[in-house]
Structures are given as C-alpha cells and as structure tokens.
Amino acid sequence: MGLVIKCLVILVRKASIVYKFSGLMFLVILITVSVLLTLANWQMTSTFETYMEHQSMHSSMHQPQEQFLSSIHDSLAWVGAFILLVGLAASYLLARRVTDPLRKLSAAAEQIGAGQYDTPILEENSDEVGQLADSLRAMTKSLKDNQVMRQRLFADIAHELKTPLTVIQGNLEGMIEDVVSCDKEQLSSLLEETIHLKRLINDLRDLSLAEAGQLRIERQVTDINQLAIHVTSLLQPLAEEKKIQLLLDTAELPEVFADSARITQVLYNLLTNAIRYTQHEGKISVSTQIVLLNNQTWASVCVEDDGPGIPEADLPFVFDHFYRVDLSRDRRSGGTGIGLAIVKQLVEIHGGQVTAKSRVGEGSLFCIYLPIGTSDTMS
Predict the structure, then answer these.
(1) Are residues 101 and 175 in the same domain?
(2) Alpha carbon of 351 to those of 9, 48, 338, 339, 378: distances in Å?
C-alpha cells in the first residue's frame, strides 16, 4: 500500500489536473476503505470478545446481543465521522493545491495588465496550470518586446521628422536674418528636404494603414514582368551614377490579380534599397519566375545584389520599422528604415510572402512571392 501511495503522490505532482483529481479521489477512497476495514475489524473483534464473555457469564442472550449491535452501530458512526473529516481535509488540500497557483497567476496577470512586465511568474508545473503559466510568460515577453519596439518606433519617428524640419527651419531663419542667401540652389535644397519629409509621412501613413488592415487595395489583372521592366528602367539612371550593372531576367509568367501601383512600390523599395547598399561598380540582378512553394504556385520577383551583406543576427529584423543593420548610417545613406517594412506589409496584404537571404561579404537576396490566380481565387 505504501508503494501505491508513493506512486499516487508522484502522479499528483507531475500529471494533468484531470489525473490529479482522479488520483487524489482514488487515494481518498483507498484510505477510507482501509481505515474502515481496519476499524471495523478491530471494533468487531473487540465487541465480539466482550459478547462472548457476557454469554458465558449470563444465561440470558438478549442483553449481550443488544450491546453487540449497539457497539457495531457506534463503531460505524465513528468510522463515518472519521471518513467525513478525512474527505473534508483531502478536498480542502486538493482545492488549495489547484487554486493557489491560479490565484498567483491571476495576481501576476493583474500586475502585467497594469504594465509591470517584470512580474515574476513562478509556476513551473507540467500540468495545465504550468502550461497556462508558460503562456502567460510568453505573452508577457511579447508585450514587453512590443513596448520596447513601440518606444523605439516613436523615438525613430520623432528623429526622422525632426531632421528635415530642423534643416528647413534653420535655412528659413537664416534667410530672414540675411545670413543664408535666398538663391535657387538654397531653395532647391529646401524643396528636397520637403519632398523627403512628405515621402516619410506618406510611408508612415501607408504602413500604419497596412498594419491595421485598412489600406485600400485595388486589385486587377497585372503583368508582373511589365512592372519589373518599368521599375528597372526608372531606376537605371540612379544605378548608372554608381556605375552599377543592373540586369533583368524575366520568365514567362501568368497574369497576377494584384494592385499594380502597390506592387510597383514594393519593387521600387527593394531595388532602391539594393542600389543604396551596393558598392560602386557592383551588380544587381532582378529576375522573375514561377515557383512551387507549399503545394502552391507563386509568381516570384527576386532582387539580388553583391553588396556587403547582412549579418545573420540582423537578418530576422530587416523588415522591422526603422531597423538599420549599420546604426551609424544617417538617413541619406541608409534611408528612413521603413522601406522593407512597407514591402512586407504590402506583399502580405496581397496574400503573398517575402524572404531575405544574405551572407556578409557576398550580398543579399530579397524575393517576393505573389499567389497566381484570378479575382475568384483571391477573394
């Protein structure tokens, strides 16, 4: 019996709550039956011996029989009361063992809800309560990371908006005080800063709408090859300034049901990003092809460069807001840091996906995958 109880205790500590309840109830029943049999056997033996003594001393059988039955009833009453007390104690201990961790988790959840993300969650069991604690721990980490990212996002937005505004303000104040000449070159510089500021605000608006699922997408039958040719031709002069060889390799693709303006924006962001980070006299390849991925046919567009590449530790974060691999880069050499974030959101809105592969010193490869189909299959 000791071995059985030991096994049940181990089961109660490590098993599911269902098995805990079953094991504890079985343990209570086992103890109850054992106690009942032991006490009943002891009481009946003792009472029967007393009965036999009375029987040998008295010729009348009536009184000893009544005493025997009365003793049995009293014994059962005491055993029943004892069983009730044991059951009450076992139920209380069981309830405490189940509710105490839940109470602690509830208190931790309230503190986390109040923004105290460093609240310790100590429950380490492998049962349902332990799984709940693990989920709460993961949620807390996610909330903490999101808070850090949100604070960083606000700081980055403030920095990106402050820079052009400071330049514009300084030049205008200098013109008013006749410190800065109000010539065509200076006005062109101010116009450039204004255009950059407007582009940043538009990107932030598009990104926020895309993440909220409210960005308007006007899907229509689209030739991806034509979009790739158009964007490549548009950015050819920018590549020639750095003497970058810009190659285009298109495969025969079926038409895709997509927003041509948004996909053009995606390809523009990918290609300008590649040109920005590719060294002088480098090479960039743009290719299209049909790809079978996850038992589905996709139209893919890949942009590959032979630039400095991206470290493996930074690769998972390249599509985050304002993320730059080289933090020392300013906004002119490194862009605003939200181009790839917009790429990811726009591609996912179309039901597609985007991937990034890179090796330091060997360049980077960015690919977008758009599902091939009509308006019926995309709806």
Answers:
(1) no
(2) 52, 85, 20, 19, 8
Confirm whether 135 is domain-assigned.
no
The answer to whether residues 284 and 275 touch, using CB atoms and an 8 Å cutoff, is yes
Task: Indicate left, alpha or beta for 371 from its phi (over 0: left) and psi (-120 to 50: alpha).
Answer: beta
What is the per-residue pLDDT for 341?
A: 85
Residue 125 in any domain: the answer is no
Grade residue 165 by pLDDT with cuts at 50, 70 and 90.
confident
Domain that holds residue 195: 142-211
* 8 A C-beta contact, residue 165 and residue 147: no
**What is the DSSP track for 97-126?**
HHHHHHHHHHHHHHHHHTT-TT-------S
Q: Mark whether 166 and 270 lie in a shared domain.
A: no
pLDDT for the residue 102: 76
Claim to verify: residue 80 and residue 34 sit in the same structural domain: yes
Residues 6+ apart with CB under 8 A from 379: none
- Distance CA(244)–CA(167), nearest Å, equals 31
Total count of domains within the chain: 3
Q: Identify whether residues 226 and 191 lie together within a single domain.
A: no
- pLDDT tens digits along 290-339: 998 878 889 999 999 988 888 888 888 888 766 665 544 444 444 556 78
Q: What is the CATH number of the domain that holds 228?
A: 3.30.565.10
**Best CA proximity match to 278, nearest among 352, 320, 333:** 333
What are the CA-CA distances from residue 146 to residues 150, 162, 281, 339 (Å)?
6, 24, 40, 20
* Residue 80 pLDDT greater than 80, yes or no: no
Q: Is 238 exposed, middle or buried (0-12, 13-18, 19+ CB in 10 A)?
A: middle
- Residues 271 and 371 occupy one common structural domain: yes
CB-based contact 274:248 (threshold 8 Å)? no
Length of the chain, please? 379
